[in-house]
Design goal:
It contains five helices and eleven strands. It is of the alpha+beta class. The chain has two domains: 78 residues; 69 residues, no CATH class. The strands form three sheets. Strands 7, 8, 9, 10 and 11 form a five-stranded antiparallel β-sheet that branches. The chain has a three-stranded antiparallel β-sheet with strand order 1-6-4. A hairpin with a 6-residue loop joins strand 2 and strand 3. The chain is elongated.
Amino acid sequence: MKNGLNLRVFGALALAGLGLALTGCKPDLTQANAQAMVQAKYDQMPPQSVSITVDEQGLRKGAESKYWTMTKLYPNKYWADFTLTPEGKKVVKLPNGGDVIQWRPESEGDKSFSIVVQTVAANHMKAKEMKPLQDDGSGKSAEVVEAVNLDGVPDALQEIAHHPGNRLSTKRQASFSYEGGAWKLAGVN
């Protein structure tokens, strides 16, 4: 009795699946599946370091955290050189490859001056906040937020990264196509 019921249930499911295949119905693409496809693409890409803009407040925080120390103060009293410490070299690198930050604001009151450092930690981007999928004729698309990954970056440097002037996320458009009986990520722009 039980085997007969199981046979009928599996038979009905098989017929329903065959019917869907013959009528050309596509399985539904969920936001979670779409986001997982975008994240899988990011995970296949090489890990990247994060560029962090360091303003005056960030410069102080980096000095307090012993990432760099002032090694020279110029006569105008607002230009200075800061050398990366051994601890600092473990967490940041300078774009020019050196170890001296040249702090050169235009005036003593210049609050807009900044420099850029790169994290030593390299991570994969993160796909966050997938918006609802929209049919676009040949497939589906949705806005997704692409965010930098600060895993392995010390708290003090993460705090500097959250100061104004740093862009930690970007809105992208993800496109999906239905090919060979399955949804595939067509691209992220």
